[in-house]
Amino acid sequence: MNHAQLRRVTAESFAHYRHGLAQLLFDTVHGGASVGFMADLDMQQAYAWCDSLKADIAAGDLLLWVVAEDSHVLASAQLSLCQKPNGLNRAEVQKLMVLPQARGRGLGRQLMEEIEQTAVKHKRGLLHLDTEAGSTAEAFYSALAYHRVGELPDYCATPDGRYRPTAIYFKTLGQPT
């Protein structure tokens, strides 16, 4: 039996995880999660999304992690480091995705802990994120001590096309130095 391992995806290791990331996105969207794509997402579009990440990863603007068993990606998350001169203290958590059959194993928490530790190393004392209001993700982020700021109405469409509000969260990790 293989054990899931947390890995940081670099530009060099990207090709190894490309298929798994595309499949994770496809399964997440077709499972109903609102992560920026509609229900008509196909694998070609999922691969195009994956490929769009590589330049930002290579530039160091986007950090990407996977939890994988061999090349089978079970979960993934991203940290987008703000590059604006007045925002070098913050980063955005993006696209935390866990395969439905891998939920309940603590993979999301493991990814978030790694994101927070890495954010501190990059002198990012403020993390923010958004998630569909009313989703199970809200309880998850609250349990990790993220603070809910409020909601934006009709912010984005779910994969089936219904517009839903998004909830905005933040967490301070300490003062950047």
From TrEMBL:
Statement: the UniProt record of this protein carries the keyword Acyltransferase: yes
Organism name: Pseudomonas syringae pv. solidagae
InterPro entries (alphabetical): Acyl_CoA_acyltransferase, Bact_Acetyltransf, GNAT_dom
Protein name in the entry: Uncharacterized protein
Keywords, comma-separated and alphabetical: Acyltransferase, Transferase
Pfam families: Acetyltransf_10 (PF13673)
MF GO annotations: acyltransferase activity, transferring groups other than amino-acyl groups
Transferase among keywords: yes
